[in-house]
């Protein structure tokens, strides 16, 4: 399969390709029957450790490179002295050059460190460097961290979830996007998503909206949710931090009878007390977290009891290491984890490994055919094994090969990065109100 002709998720053309795995992997509908009979599904056979694993010094970091590729992703490639290559993703949408600057600094300092000591490298980058946290430094660290987990899995011959405590589920629920920055045609798109195998979608709740807008500005939002749900699919609504408090409480009340899956960023991060007020006014689950970095950022929201779902973005929050810790911390507050992931294949694979190994995982975002993937670039463009992300019954199956479990076309990535370097990196659109005032994206 060509890297530029992604497998149409939802089709059945992969059945024959997957037949060899049928002894181990069952269709989603059969899983519960098997489990309910008390039959334990066998763990996939792990590969042998990489030949370099027993060679002293072979796991030392030899090179760290980064590649900006369209539509808007930043990949990190780390190679060890033993020739093991790990890939990570530190995409920070609209701030590519800032993360690349941080990665340049990081790359210089980590040559010669043992790639297997992920926690030590994390501690060095986070703790030793005095200034810490925030979206730029943490996205760079995330890209490095994800690549290190990929290396560790490949060196030991096991999938990343095996290193995170083993699998707790065979499949991870996912959702796709409908509508764009300014939601429209969502019903037709939701029908397409359903045909593609999704059972859940997410859409923006509103277009850009004034601080105090007409109550009628919310009517279309309610109508869209009702219409999407009428086709038999669940929908989360992303307020995107666009809706201020006075409008958010009206919108939550209007949506409540139609039972959205969740409302996301109903207020901007930082408004912990105001979120708590909203939380107490609605029965709709409240999700937030794509703009929080590390456990420390999440802590006030957990302690205030103002969210039901934490949405760490694995490419920003601190990679696999920190996202796993956020998830464990959230469980103590009865908060579910829904990794935010409108990004590339590496961030998506890394998020799934959290899902396969984490009890309070609920659902993961999937960027396949989302509105930001333009110009012919999409989730599978750089993959040579896109079938591993096949959606069935609203979920994606276990990733089974060592490391992250995805294979990339490195030549294509290098060629595309050389082209993309000549272009201005992706930046988010600018919205203004009728008075000219800049509004939230
Ligand atoms: Mg969002």
TrEMBL record:
SMART domains, per the entry: MR_MLE (SM00922)
Named cofactor requirement(s): Mg(2+)
Matching InterPro entries: DgoD-like, Enolase-like_C_sf, Enolase-like_N, Enolase_C-like, Galactonate_deHydtase, Mandel_Rmase/mucon_lact_enz_CS, Mandelate_racemase_C, Mandelate_racemase_N_dom
GO BP term, pick one: amino acid catabolic process
UniProt keyword list: Lyase, Magnesium, Metal-binding
GO molecular function annotations of the record: galactonate dehydratase activity; metal ion binding
The protein, known as: Uncharacterized protein
Keyword Magnesium in record: yes
Presence of keyword tRNA-binding: no
Region (Disordered): 1-22, 36-57
Comp. bias (Low complexity): 42-56
Organism from which the protein derives: Kwoniella shandongensis
